Amino acid sequence: MAFNFETEKLRKHLEKIKPKRVLVQLPEGVKQNSFELLEFFEKLKIEAIFSGETCWGGCAVAVEEAKSVKADLIVHFGHSEFMKVNFPVIYIPIKDELNLESLLKKSLFELKSFKNIGLSCSVQHIHDLKNILEFYENNGKKVIVSKKKGNVSGEGQVVGCQYFGLKEIQDKVDCFVVVGNNFHSMGAALAVDKPVFLIDVYNNEIKNMNGVKDKILRQRILSVEKFKDAKKIGIIIGVKQGQQFGSYKYLKDRFIKLGKEVVVLTINEFSPDKLVNFYNIDGFVELACPRIATDDFARYKKPIITFKEALVVVGEKSWDDLIKEGLL
């Protein structure tokens, strides 16, 4: 991996803003670069404080942390802007500068049966989007780039919880190619009704996500069926501004009509340890990031379902509706 933190671009921003103290947010995979970045800020005579909290996406902007340390600015690495916040933020997506040619050539075998390809990349690879598109077109493929829909910052970008831009083009393509990692491609597979292939730049492989999708669908059906038997329910509201999906009041009223008891909870960062003491709750609905329920199935002893899945439980949707629309 060859991460480019775009420090020259950042320097120009900082010279205009002239902050005295910044809060720096780093994704989990690059927290080890904190000393390298600390040196950069110190040369500019800027005090840098690094957030130790998890930072999975642009949905997790640490505004309260920044205020608590009296920072003038947040420098958020690894993601693009996902939402507007009432605090100054600079987003530096981090370019992952890799030579993708051998992987793209390898992918042609997997894609030989598909003429029309939908293309999307995680933000670290957006700078390569044009070259990837040209490669496939030069090899006889018709390529349609995913649209700018929802909270993505531009065409061709994929984020972990929203796939509107892929859904917009799925009737025009035979399959999707996602350049990046398992997280984004697995989400895409759950969201669209076409085959999804991952160009896995970190494990140097091409991965057909159909098998993964089938496994997760079985897990989700199991979770929903277990949840239907729950007598006491916890509805969890995520307190992160960018991780709030669905109305707890809407669900609470409908669960009560079904004869269930309901308690409403708030959580900032999910973990099994935080739920274990609610031992008398039979099942949870989480209204934070939908990937918590879908990706962390094995971590929780009690069933945890998403807002969309809760609509199946209360009879607002059928499971077939959910499969057709996409789980995410």
Q: How would you concisely characterize the structure shown here?
A:
By secondary structure, this protein is an alpha/beta fold. 35% of the residues lie in helices and 20% in strands. The protein has three domains: 3-95, 3-Layer(aba) Sandwich (Rossmann fold), CATH 3.40.50.11840; 101-208, Rossmann fold (3-Layer(aba) Sandwich); 213-325, Diphthamide synthesis DPH1/DPH2 domain 3 (Rossmann fold, 3-Layer(aba) Sandwich), CATH 3.40.50.11860.
Q: What features would you describe in this structure?
A:
- By secondary structure, the chain is of the alpha/beta class.
- The protein is built from 13 helices and 15 strands.
- Helix 2 links the parallel strand 2 (21-25) and strand 3.
- Helix 8 (210-228) packs across helix 12 (307-313).
- The radius of gyration is 21 Å and the shape is flat.
- The two termini are 29 Å apart.
- The model has no long low-confidence stretch (mean pLDDT 95).
The overall average pLDDT, rounded, is: 95
What is the makeup of the main sheet?
Answer: 5 strands, mixed
The shape, in one word, is flat
Assembly state? single chain
Low-pLDDT segments, ≥5 res? none
Distance between the termini: 29 Å
- Radius of gyration, in Å, reads 21 Å
- Helix/strand order: EHEHEHEEEHEHEHEHEEHEHEHEHEHH
By CATH, the topology of the largest domain is: Rossmann fold
Task: Please tally the helical runs, counting DSSP H or I stretches of 4 or more residues.
Answer: 13
> Which range best describes the helical content: under 10%, 10-25%, 25-40%, 40-55%, 55-70% or over 70%?
25-40%
Beta-strand content estimate: 15-25%
What structural class should be given to the helix and strand makeup? alpha/beta
The number of distinct structural domains comes to 3
User: Per CATH, which architecture of the largest domain?
Assistant: 3-Layer(aba) Sandwich
Task: Determine and state the CATH class of the largest domain.
Answer: Alpha Beta
* Overall number of strands: 15
